[in-house]
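Reopening closed ticket. The problem is back. First fold of the pair:
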Amino acid sequence: MRDESNESNGPKAAPPNPDARPPLHHDSFYEFAHVADVSQVVSVLRELTQGLTGTILVAKEGINGMLAGEESALDAFQKALAQDPRLGGLFGALEVKRSPCASPPFRRMKVRHKAEILPLGIAGVDAVNHTGIRVDPAAWRELIARDDVVLIDNRNSFEFRLGHFKRALNPGVHNFRDFPRYVEANLETWKAQGKRVAMYCTGGIRCEKTSAWLATMDMPVYELAGGIISYFRQMPDADKDWEGECFVFDNRVALDTHLQQTSTTLEDIFSGDEQDAWRLRRALRLAQDRVKDGADDEDAS
């Protein structure tokens, strides 16, 4: 009699691939904090990020980082960042924005000592002790629908063109350092009109530094907590408020409202704009360098 006990009723499953690796993920984070010994923090972070790729900037005003790796490795780093006694608890409360990667965002790991983690072009801005009014994504949707709110995109003009909140104003700047001039040119008008200012950026850091500066000018700012990335992550129907894609400063180039990498290329973004032609040339050069020898990635500005 034929023994069919071990026969399958369907196609056999493919054998496991011993070379398959867990998928990569991308973490972005920042924290404004008083860092007394920047060199020591740089040294500790270089140790803790072994096996990861990306960039972390360290300055006396805090840290600003983007990392990629397997989720278990990213989790281990974030735990060490919060608990390593050598860091003195400086970064135990920072928010991490995580998204999946269809391709490696970075080719190497860099931890750099900088004068500022994000230069605004104005000396003496204290983002450690001053900040705006943080608004979570659900409340943000209600806020930006109000007529007494002026909604400002606190990013570069090419980022706005690729995607933005539907009611947002484009300041038309080509570098973050140009943004204060736009604000100064419009601030008194907004005050006279009784407008409240709400602004957003990719991960939140630009808005936090800008709002610290505006706090000294008697202008409170409503910030989207965690930036666009957190909005996409927490709002499954983000496309109701958002038009287009979101540019990211790594090899993925652009994400949709579900945090999935799109097919948009650097040429799609920068071609046709002479003022940003230098960005395309630099981005393509850096991408080629990364393929050859893992040269430095472009920093978000």
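Second fold of the pair, where the issue appears:
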Amino acid sequence: MDTIEQTHPNMKYLEPPLLLKNDSGHFVSVLAGEVFQTVAFGDIDNDGDVDIVVSNVGQRAYLLRNDGGNRRSWLGIQTTGRKSNREGIGCRVRVVSASGLAQYFTVNTAVGYLSASDKRLIAGLGGDSSAKLVESGGRPGLSRDSRTSRLARR
């Protein structure tokens, strides 16, 4: 547990949660716990939408499962490296849907204090049933040894 407040009363790590829900065009606060510590993002149930795992100080972690965002087609992408960067961290990926919408991603797991998010990329395809282009490359200044694998398409 973080105890910085005991030695430095003007500093604290504990923060109240801020989670808002869009309720007919107005944002409403949804309180999930008294003290917020960290969150991680990923497609926990492999249905094409991003879920959230929340950790609170002194409490059990819990899952905010997104059940409303998987009604359309999506493409899951897993990057892998061939040599030194086996997980493809830093790999840049461009996905172009069949209708021409381009999306750009950078593989990254770092999101905050004491957490790591899913490194898989989820590209929403909207009304399209497929992507016409998936292009990947390495980080600038490093060898371009990353490649992509398509995980799932709905």
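Update: turned out to be a display glitch only; the data is intact. The helical segments are 4-7. Residues 20 and 26 are 9 Å apart (CA to CA). Please close again.
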